[in-house]
Amino acid sequence: MQPPTIALFAKYPAAGAAKTRLIPALGPEGAAQVHRLLVERTIATIRHSGLPFAVYFSGAPREDFAAWLGDDVALVEQGEGDLGDRLTRVAAPAILLGADIPGLTPRHLQQAASALDRSDAVVGPAQDGGYYLLGFRQRLPFLFTDMEWGTASVLDHTLARLKAQNIAFTLLDMLADCDRPADLAHYPNLLP
């Protein structure tokens, strides 16, 4: 099997449009700066993993992302629709990834890729009840339809759907994300 491509989903770090749940604590500019740092940190982590990757972008034109991240970063427009619609478009084999997990290491990504050698899917559970990573050998569109994104039940619903379809999956270590003002206390190095 060819190695999975990491599909990093990222918004442009525009004030007022990125990390909006952090705005009450940091203001629009501060929240955007935290998002910028998280995306840059995640790309560095991906590079250290040695896995191929592409940034699935939204919130600004391709040229703005290229100016920010560099010409050597593969860029794919997310397109229209809700999160499920956008995730469904990623070709397999792939590892879907968000940029809001400060504790993510190259080892987590390498473990995810290795898991796909023996499982059909791999899931990295997040402490908030969602997941920070989802990998698959073949497209699994049923995981992305009629999902209540951003809720504490996303992980449970995802695992139940995998089990109902008899899809063999591997669970990675649980990690915390940085989405809400209370999360910032754990990551003081992200504060602007």
TrEMBL record:
InterPro entries: Nucleotide-diphossugar_trans, Trfase_1_rSAM/seldom-assoc. It comes from the Bacteria. This is DUF2064 domain-containing protein.
